């Protein structure tokens, strides 16, 4: 069975009848699709199109590198692992190395893909490729001109406390913390 057939159930497929573009921005586009449902009726689906992103669980001396930055949709700062969107045609591995260096100043020649996952499949096609390195080396940051953040390092215990306190509230960073914890228990990245 091919990989793209694994998540197919033809009895549940929806056929796209038309697509109406609504908005095209720098990062996302929004469209409304009219679909034919399995029972023959039609419905609309609001879809956010996204180029994809990368995130890096980077460990330095058994501490996780994180960045704190303001997130406008939530009107507050968030503590997150380094991450960013893919440029058009960019290889996710190269993007992961780029984002790690740009946001933290650290670099690593040993990035390993942990997992790729969809952030909100009910309305968006954004996929995040989560990489890990336990060999992060310090260097120089290269932030974008509109990017303001602070870099710090957390122990596993501190990361769990940040989750409990709500300072870490995004899925990619929580997933990274849980993967790191599992690694400490098994010695393997899952």
UniProtKB/TrEMBL annotation:
<feature type="domain" description="Nudix hydrolase">
    <location>
        <begin position="49"/>
        <end position="176"/>
    </location>
</feature>
<dbReference type="InterPro" id="IPR000086">
    <property type="entry name" value="NUDIX_hydrolase_dom"/>
</dbReference>
<dbReference type="InterPro" id="IPR015797">
    <property type="entry name" value="NUDIX_hydrolase-like_dom_sf"/>
</dbReference>
<dbReference type="GO" id="GO:0016787">
    <property type="term" value="F:hydrolase activity"/>
</dbReference>
<dbReference type="InterPro" id="IPR020084">
    <property type="entry name" value="NUDIX_hydrolase_CS"/>
</dbReference>
<protein>
    <submittedName>
        <fullName>Methanol dehydrogenase activator</fullName>
        <ecNumber>3.-.-.-</ecNumber>
    </submittedName>
</protein>
<keyword id="KW-0378">Hydrolase</keyword>
<dbReference type="Pfam" id="PF00293">
    <property type="entry name" value="NUDIX"/>
</dbReference>
